[in-house]
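quick q for whoever's on today - can somebody do inverse folding on this one?? i tried earlier but teh output was garbage lol. tokens:
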């Protein structure tokens, strides 16, 4: 079973008969097909998932995970709170960006997958807090 708040993810997975796709309701963002808002948050809170895959628009050098859309942040926070294992997937360009809304902190994830982690402080936080860092370009 895959639970998602993104219509593009749901559309790609729906063709696999062995995967049951469950999609959140709410406001659909035209730019990326993300489903956001309180309805999506309430929906996500109904589940306790084994694995959650999240992204961030920016990663601050202190390990803060940031986004631009406060409605998406609320959904991401609900996903993190209701998962046994959280996987953050983000490329290294996110370290070069800033965004105003705090999703949480890298210490709230279990696995961080990126092409490369160029910020030594974030690398140290991952090591000290047992966040598994996987760099695909190394």
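ok took a stab at it. sequence:
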């Amino acid at each position: 079973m895959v639970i998602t708040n993104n219509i593009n993810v749901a559309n790609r997975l729906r063709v696999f008969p062995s995967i049951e796709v469950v999609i959140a309701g709410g406001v659909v963002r035209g730019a990326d097909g993300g489903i956001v808002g309180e309805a999506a948050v309430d929906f996500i809170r109904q589940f306790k998932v084994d694995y959650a895959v999240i992204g961030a628009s920016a990663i601050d050098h202190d390990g803060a995970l940031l986004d631009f859309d406060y409605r998406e942040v609320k959904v991401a926070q609900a996903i993190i709170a209701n998962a046994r294992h959280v996987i953050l997937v983000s490329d290294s360009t996110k370290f070069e960006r800033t965004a105003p809304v705090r999703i949480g902190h890298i210490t709230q994830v279990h696995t961080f997958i990126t092409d490369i982690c160029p910020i030594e402080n974030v690398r140290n936080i991952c090591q000290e807090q047992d966040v598994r860092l996987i760099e695909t370009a190394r």
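fwiw The radius of gyration is 15 Å. also Residues 11 and 21 are 9 Å apart (CA to CA). so keep that in mind when u check it
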